[in-house]
Design goal:
The chain contains 17 helices and 5 strands. It is an alpha/beta fold. It has 2 domains: 141 residues, 3-Layer(aba) Sandwich (Rossmann fold), CATH 3.40.50.2300; 184 residues, Hypothetical protein af1432. A 5-stranded parallel sheet has the order 2-1-3-4-5, sandwiched between helices. Helix 6 links the parallel strand 4 and strand 5. Helix 8 runs antiparallel to helix 9, helix 12 packs antiparallel against helix 13 and helix 13 crosses helix 14. The longest helix is centred in the middle third of the chain and has 38 residues. The chain is elongated and about 80 Å long. The chain binds fe (ii) ion. Fe (ii) ion binds next to loops. The site of fe (ii) ion has 5 residues, from loops.
Length: 361
């Protein structure tokens, strides 16, 4: 690594902190990996002139180590480097969850089309060509930073949704991991039902968050052993409405809200809160209803012991066409034949359901 002119006992960051604290904290950091000393110096100078914090290394192996230890906002990798070339570093970074979305700009020699093709295959975000124009370099860095900021905002939304689902489970420890398991089943059913990508995502979110409205229900009702009084049942039956209201301010609320609101509707029209019937009920809600019921049946509840897999299947069949969409029940039974339920499963669909709907993996 090169450090330029500064007192030997002070890091570059510390030097900058002393000069201008705000600038250091706000400016994005860029890791430059380039074995040619002159090009490295030019890259560094152009980036620093624009206010970026720059760390640089002269080989691929050091680039990988540095990026994993101190993830930068953008990585600028030369393709031809000793120890590990830029393509190998890119491939290694894409395999790690923490750097899977890192903007990687590869530095290629002019006219090397095969480098660009290999770079895209390896997972590079962008290219600059040597000899480079500083204005183009800076424009590409800005573009990649904007894209990665947008992606991380999207990820934040998903984190909020997972946190909401966790809040529901925390409120009722007896149903711990229920939402994640329901998401797992629901995504499987959505795939079998042939839903498209957007619908499958909606089902994933709807399944994880189907009971989010229970946040608004008193714990004394939620965890009451034995039967609820009529008044308690009315209060409990408000949870789909409360859930849809909680999600309404979110952009995703438009597609997920109707699933959450309708997850206790019945195929025969006898459900709540709107008494929808048959295909009036969103398909996502019909799927979540079956997945929710099956998972609830094979686990203990305050008011009853768990059923065996066989008993739970029989229950689904006896409610086929009355409570549940008959086609969804059939899909669930065939899914269970393919991969039997694990009642002790923790179901990492908690997060997987939100991030990687089945079928898009
Ligand atoms: Fe519910």
């Amino acid at each position: 690594m090169t450090y330029g002119d500064r007192p030997a006992n002070l890091s570059r960051e510390e030097t900058r902190v002393r000069g201008n604290v705000r600038r250091t904290i706000d400016q994005p950091s860029i890791l430059v990996a380039e074995d040619d000393i002159a090009t490295r110096a030019l890259l560094r100078a152009a980036l620093e002139r624009d206010g970026y914090r720059v760390r640089d290394v002269d080989n691929g192996a050091d680039a990988l180590t540095e990026i994993v230890r101190f993830p930068p906002d953008v990585a600028l990798l030369d393709i031809g480097m000793p120890s590990m070339d830029g393509l190998d570093v890119t491939r290694a970074l894409r395999k790690r969850p923490s750097t899977a979305l890192l903007p990687i700009i590869l530095v290629t020699a002019r006219g090397r089309l095969e480098d660009k093709v290999a770079g895209l295959d390896a997972g590079a975000s962008d290219f600059i060509t040597k000899p480079f124009e500083p204005a183009e370099l800076l424009a590409r860095v800005r573009t990649n930073l904007r894209l990665s900021a947008a992606l991380s905002r999207l990820e934040n939304t998903q984190d909020v949704l997972v946190a909401l689902a966790n809040a529901v489970d925390a409120k009722d420890p007896l149903t711990e991991h229920h939402c994640g398991r329901v998401a797992d089943w629901a995504l499987l059913l959505a795939g079998l039902a042939g839903l498209d990508q957007e619908e499958r995502e909606a089902v994933g979110y709807g399944a994880v968050l189907h009971d989010v409205g229970k946040i608004g229900i008193a714990e004394s009702v939620l965890t009451k052993p034995g039967r609820l009084t009529d008044e308690e049942r009315v209060r409990m039956q408000r949870h789909p409405i409360i859930g849809a209201e909680i999600l309404q301010p979110l952009r995703l609320g438009r597609i997920v809200g109707p699933i959450v609101r309708a997850h206790h509707e019945r195929w025969d029209g006898g459900g709540y809160p709107d008494g929808l019937r048959g295909e009036e009920i969103p398909i996502g809600a019909r799927i979540v209803a079956v997945a929710d019921a099956y998972d609830a049946m094979i686990h203990d509840r305050p008011y009853r012991a768990s059923l065996s897999d066989e008993e739970a299947r029989a229950e689904l069949v006896s409610n086929r066409g009355t409570q549940f969409d008959p086609e969804v029940v059939d899909l669930m039974l065939s899914a269970l034949d393919e991969s039997p339920a694990d009642p002790d499963g923790v179901a990492d669909a908690y997060t997987r359901g939100l991030r990687l709907p089945r079928g898009s993996e």
